[in-house]
Design brief:
Largest sheet of chain A: 5 strands, antiparallel
CATH topology of chain A: Thiol Ester Dehydrase, Chain A
Oligomer: homotetramer
CATH architecture of chain A: Roll
Strand content of chain A: 35-45%
Radius of gyration of chain A: 16 Å
Order of helices and strands of chain A: EHHEEEEH
Helix content of chain A: 25-40%
Structural class of chain A: alpha+beta
CATH superfamily of chain A: Hotdog Thioesterase
Strand order of the largest sheet of chain A: 1-3-4-5-2
CATH class of chain A: Alpha Beta
Number of strands of chain A: 5
Number of helices of chain A: 3
Largest interface: A-D, 22 and 22 residues
Chain lengths: 137, 137, 137, 137
């Protein structure tokens, strides 16, 4: 875990648990999204403000490995690292770990880009500068 | 059921079922919302277009009675009726019934209004006219 | 607010916000449910353990007033009080308040009972005793 | 598309749309899950019944490419193919396509296994036989 790793801690909410008695797979995507949004906010990037300016931060690819399951009552932490892949792509390396026994529950690489009003990938200067700060840190 | 009753039929999706093995309560609100939106669309009212014009159709009150539970594999129908309560309020009378045995699962009165850009209740002429058509029908 | 009031604090997650730019109505039910579950857990009542024992704690009625809206970035608190209504019914009086300006966003009375394996309302001794402790406190 | 391709058609529900005005990424996982469950049901495999017997059908990996976005009002179809990868793994090849213009919205390979009560991968005879029927067809 490098010094740029962002950590978000939370607990399972019972409505997130499905009929198998475990947190539904789609909920891990909710966790990852929330972790990404609060992470980039600490970097000065507000997901929703960029939307209002006409730039959409969107995922283009997810690679997800399900290693275990969270249950009712579990606390967990989501770690997030950001790396620049190319001029137009950046990847969030994310993991979900159960706190009670440090078990790795889920590992994902969520790759993103920024789309302008014409639907084309474009990372505006200001955003690029903020992202670059992390990458070189 | 009067001739203005709108019926939407669907089946339970397993991710909607929670750790008790029944559809989570909050999901009935999802069903009701979707039923309202497709109902008013048949009347020429597009929820999202009104949002883009600066008018928000919003709930102000819900009265909900939980009579039974839907489970994995159940098919159900949501019936919706609209009645005008006052110049600024309209009520959706909604019910969810399981199809296999016609059991009543949920009954709700969801009362709504329309909010303008200043955050004040206001039902524009055009919308009022569309709503009135139902009420007198 | 009496001394039995339970408070749960959290922040809006962006995936809870819908196309109107506000937290979707059904999400308030998620918040209320989670607040109830962690509240009764502090009283020694584990929702899921009772399920495994064959007793389902279920809502029978909700009365909900929508007073305002939460948005992306908002922090909020949910307050919960429990009162016994009858031998077989108890009510959760719940409110959601935005933290930045203390604005009341939502008020609800969520009435619950306990259902045994035969589908009949029954509150077992042990559960009744735990609930009664609050009521007389 | 081979003759074993399963197709599920549906329309976007407004509560699935997030503050960017597009269907939230996590919802595609809901769509895929529902499509898988109704597909395997047509093969005689009931996800929930196997859970009750002590066998959990679970995802172990997802590879997801986001090609476009669904919006309010869109109808879409989810296609699903099943292929056996090894004695203990099977893959669902899934796609989401918008109906109005046949645009490909999302492509995923969701790899699954079956876990027994001891938490070990095990595909019981009966289940293996049902899965094999597809693979050779």
């Amino acid at each position: 875990m490098n010094k740029n790793t962002h950590i978000w801690e939370a607990e399972v909410r019972d409505y997130e648990v499905d009929l198998q008695g475990i947190v539904n797979n789609s909920v891990y995507f909710n966790y990852y999204e929330h972790a990404r949004h609060i992470y980039i906010k600490t970097l000065g990037i507000d997901f929703y403000e960029w939307h209002l300016k006409g730039y959409e931060l969107v995922l283009i690819h997810s690679d997800v490995s399900y290693k275990g399951s969270l249950k009712s009552g579990d606390s967990f932490c989501v770690t997030t690292n950001l790396s620049l892949i190319s001029r137009l792509k950046f990847a969030f390396n994310q993991q979900i770990t159960r706190k009670s026994d440090n078990k790795l529950i889920n590992v994902a690489i969520n790759t993103a880009t920024c789309i302008n009003k014409n639907g084309r990938p474009e990372i505006p200067e200001e955003l690029a500068a903020l992202l670059l700060k992390i990458a070189v840190a």
